[in-house]
Design goal:
The structure holds 2 protein chains of 2 kinds. By secondary structure, chain A is α/β, with parallel strands linked by helices. Chain A is built from 12 helices and 8 strands. Helices cover 44% and strands 14% of the residues of chain A. In chain A, helix 11 (267-282) links the parallel strand 7 and strand 8 (287-292). In chain A, helix 6 (140-150) packs antiparallel against helix 7. The N and C termini of chain A lie far apart (48 Å). By secondary structure, chain B is an alpha/beta fold. In chain B, strand 1, helix 2 (42-47) and strand 2 form a beta-alpha-beta unit. A 4-stranded parallel sheet of chain B has the order 2-1-3-4, with helices on both faces. A 4-stranded parallel sheet of chain B has the order 6-5-7-8. Chain B has helices at residues 5-17, 42-47, 55-64, 68-77, 86-97, 120-132, 148-170, 176-202, 207-219, 224-237, 278-281, 292-301, 309-323, 337-340, 365-381; strands at residues 33-36, 51-53, 110-114, 136-139, 249-253, 273-277, 327-333, 350-355. The chains are: A alpha/beta, B alpha/beta. At the A-B interface, helix 2, helix 3, helix 4 and helix 11 of A face helix 6, strand 4, helix 7 and helix 14 of B.
Chain lengths: 312, 382
């Protein structure tokens, strides 16, 4: 069983999957998120993977199964509720249970270690959260590289290490966006004299900020509740909460600028940007928007980043 | 005496636009106002005497008035990326510049967004919430992704919750008999529309008339005048000449081009006729069921764009077969990723055009001309 998963919405408590980071794919769909298109390419072309699990959370992910309809690998789409209330928790719990059953049926296995995995994840997330709290002292690019490596491993082999290179100083910035597969871009940010001290990336703060899964009661309800109480993605339709939380962190950490990284044709972040920028403008905090064409984008943003560093 | 279709259209339009501009600056209208997406369960609002306005439809009206370019530019100046749905960009531009052909919509008391056509609309409603500082309710419709009874329970509890919140907002108690009446009206509107649509196949009628007329099924489906309008139109159009069968029948697969005076591209389609369009069938909600809960669930959970690919393929293919079309003009709409995939598995020749339903400058007309010429050559050869 080797499943490639898309986005941070796939519950790691159920079974191991390999998190999609980046791929140089051949699928190019007009006006469609390049990151999702690369995921589709990898599922179709990479024979190391025999399954795909992805959410229904934005327009691009919503139609992934249509582009994979001719693929005979295991497929599962998890509906992520567009709301975060108790009703949504119950619905998501049923969905997670159905996901587990689908995996069991397809692979002919019985999953019995969900509680154990939940405990391991609670512990891992605490350690990652501690690392995040020390971002001011460590190299952000090294930190993010280690997170990417971690997400490629089975849960029981994941080791959170404090052995991360010390960071250089720089002007404090906040990073917001979906998964950032291009570590070179982060290095460029650092080379420009900027120091990332906070973020809302899928593979960073949004990976480990969910409340610990409770160790009593219905495990699926507990997982669902934890997932919906995590730091939100704009696809979850609560911009108010995102704006409030980010502004707090930006203020508390004395951040001087925001780097907003989006994938081209990623509407949730495009919509969020319009109100995010307005709010930051009101607070006198400069924001730089970088638009990536796909998951393997290698464009050189050095000049743009240097100019931004000068401005702030 | 029965009213003519023109009289009925005038009444529906008058009712819909009566509060525009008058209350845009915050003066309280006589009724509470909701900004809603096209597939919001408006029967609940109608029964509670809450007025509802559709920004998507209004963006189409703005484009039809020829003002969309300046408004798109205005929204981009305010950091809304033009890759976003152009309905939203056009409407935002209108709100920012306080310019609109029929006046500005009244300030809403609540915003209601659904994800049963796409996930973009709830995102757009999030920025509207910021603008109006009004509460946002997102209704989540899982479609066919979950087992029916689980989905029914989930959707119904959301509808019940919506009723409670709208009762509190309006100060009115929901009259369930009135709700049932609204559902009956909606069902009658759909039935009358389906009968009317059949005339497009049989008679020599431009699709323009249908693209414009469908707007009442969107904005006024639960009002009794809508079914009456479609019945009156059917009666009037029954006298239209028979369709010229010597002309190849084409299927218009995608949105109308709202900016175009004819809503499609007749200048590129001389010698052909349009005999059907999936857009015209999207609005045929199926209010099947023996209780209001079941009827509303079936209608709003199983909208065309909320179905699995296999289901949409089957529905679309039936629609194409019914139209008798031998080829399709398929539109890759820059603003609608969910509709992109509609045309993936149809088995008739297609010309795939890159378009936007609002932005007239998006279409490369010469390229489209060549694509359609190639399509027509291929079907004539066959």
């Amino acid at each position: 069983m080797n499943i490639l998963s898309f986005s941070g919405f796939i519950p790691e408590q159920i079974c191991d999957t390999v998190r999609f980071i980046s791929y140089r794919g051949e699928q190019r769909i007009s006006h469609y998120c390049g990151y999702a298109a690369d995921y589709i390419s990898q599922v179709l072309q990479d024979n190391r993977y025999d399954g795909a699990v992805f959410p229904r959370s934005c327009d691009s992910s919503r139609v992934i199964s249509s582009y994979l309809s001719d693929c005979d690998k295991f497929m599962y789409q998890l509906h992520i509720p567009a709301r975060q209330d108790k009703l949504a928790v119950q619905f998501l719990a049923a969905n997670i249970r159905a996901y587990q059953q689908a995996v069991e049926e397809h692979y002919g296995i019985k999953i019995t270690d969900v509680w154990e995995r939940a405990e391991l994840l609670n512990r891992r997330n605490r350690l990652l959260s501690d690392l995040y709290d020390n971002l001011a002292d460590i190299s952000y690019s090294d930190y993010l590289s280690q997170l990417h490596l971690l997400l490629q491993k089975p849960l029981k082999e994941q080791r959170v290490t404090a052995d991360i290179a010390a960071g250089n100083g720089g002007k404090k910035v906040y990073l917001i966006g979906s998964l950032l597969g291009n570590i070179d871009l982060v290095k460029s940010i650092e080379l420009a004299g900027l120091k990332v001290v906070g973020d809302r990336l899928t593979e960073s703060k949004r990976l480990f900020s969910a409340p610990a899964v409770s160790e009593t009661g219905d495990i699926y309800l507990n997982i669902a509740e934890s997932m919906l109480k995590n730091k939100l993605s704009p696809s979850q339709n609560n911009f108010v909460a995102i704006l409030h939380e980010d502004c707090q962190e930006i203020k508390t950490k004395g951040i001087r600028g925001v780097v907003f990284i989006t994938q081209k044709f990623c509407e949730p972040y495009d919509y969020l940007f319009s109100v995010y920028k307005k709010l930051l403008d009101e607070q006198g905090i400069p924001v730089l928007r970088l638009v990536l064409a796909n998951s393997a984008e290698q464009r050189d943003f050095n000049n743009t980043l240097e100019s931004f560093a000068e401005i702030i | 005496m029965a009213q003519s279709s023109i009289q009925l259209q005038a009444k529906l339009m008058r009712d819909y636009y009566k509060d525009f501009s008058k209350y845009a600056k915050g003066k309280a209208p006589a009724r509470k106002v909701a900004l809603v997406t096209a597939f919001t369960p408006v029967e609940i609002l109608e029964a509670l005497n809450i007025s509802y306005i559709y920004p998507e439809s209004y963006a189409a009206v703005i484009a039809a008035s020829g003002k969309e370019q300046e408004l798109l530019a205005e929204s981009e100046r305010h950091a809304l990326c033009l890759d976003c749905c152009s309905y939203s960009c056009c409407f935002e531009g209108s709100l920012i510049s306080e310019t609109a052909p029929r006046g500005l919509p009244p300030k809403p008391d609540v915003l209601i967004a659904t994800n049963n056509q796409c996930n973009t609309l709830p995102n757009w409603w999030n920025i509207l919430t910021q603008r109006y500082q009004a509460p946002l309710i997102v209704l989540d419709y899982p479609g066919e992704i979950m087992e029916t009874e689980q989905a029914y329970e989930y959707v119904t509890r959301q509808h019940q919750d919506l009723i409670v919140r709208m009762e509190a907002l309006s100060g009115n108690r929901l009259d369930y008999e009135l709700l049932q009446e609204c559902i009956v009206n909606s069902r009658a509107s759909v039935q009358a529309w389906e009968i009317l649509l059949k005339l497009l196949v049989k008679h020599d009628i431009a699709p323009t008339l249908f693209f414009d007329a469908v707007s009442y099924l969107i904005t006024a489906r639960c009002k009794p005048e809508t079914a009456n309008l479609y019945r009156a139109m059917a009666k009037e159009l029954a006298a239209a000449p028979e369709a010229d069968r010597s002309k190849p029948a084409l299927f218009w697969l995608g949105y109308p081009l709202w900016y175009h005076a004819k809503r499609y591209l007749p200048e590129l389609l001389e010698g052909c006729r349009i005999s059907g369009s999936n857009y015209l069938g999207w609005w045929n909600l199926d209010y099947d069921g023996d209780s209001w809960e079941r009827q509303m669930f079936n209608a709003y959970n199983y909208t065309f764009l909320n179905l699995r690919q296999e289901s949409t393929n089957a529905l679309l293919w039936q629609c194409i077969k019914d139209s008798g079309a031998v080829a399709a003009v398929s539109l890759h709409n820059k603003s609608c990723k969910c509709d992109f995939v509609s045309a993936r598995q149809i088995e008739i020749p297609q010309a795939e055009l890159e378009i936007d339903m609002i932005d007239r400058e998006f279409l490369d007309i010469e390229r489209a001309r060549r694509q359609i010429e190639t399509l027509l050559e291929s079907i004539c050869t066959v």
